[in-house]
Amino acid sequence: MDRGDWTIQCGRRPDAFKIWLAWKHIGDEALRHRVEWAIELSQYAAKVITQSDKSGQFSGRFELHHDPEYANVCFWYIPPSLNHLKPSSGALSPDEASMLSQVIPYCKDRMQRLGLAMITFTGEYNFFRWTFANPRSVTRDDVVDVLRDIDLVGCDFVPSLNN
User: Fold this and answer.
1) pLDDT by residue (tens digit) across 22-56?
2) What's the pTM?
3) SUPFAM superfamilies under this entry (predicted)?
4) Counting CB atoms within 10 angstroms of each CB, which of 11, 23, 90, 157 has the fewest?
């Protein structure tokens, strides 16, 4: 269940008391390490995304919406059926924008139903917003695996013009 669709908090944990308790429990050094690792993972994800065209490991391609901010990576997945689209150029026709806006909800729904991952999406042409909120056990291999899962569930996407 994705509670982010029902709340303005959507992935944020605004309860300062919980953060303070965790900080007191794990200490300064462990908290610093967690924050630094979350930022490092987001930068690594951005690197894999920007190199996805050249890597040959994906059927579709990924494109950054903008550079990572803190531990957040915003990006599009472009399936082979829409490979001609360049959303970061901002020059999409209304039909192209409509087709692209169907991709991310499609991928998110399939990933969620298969129990692979849950990444929220938002905004212009529905881009993914991947937040590394609790990265303690997340590895670089996990980052690549999630991107492969997105590609796996999205590579057969065929857009509909009546949406």
Assistant:
1) 899 999 999 999 999 999 999 999 999 999 988 88
2) 0.84
3) PLP-dependent transferases (SSF53383)
4) 90
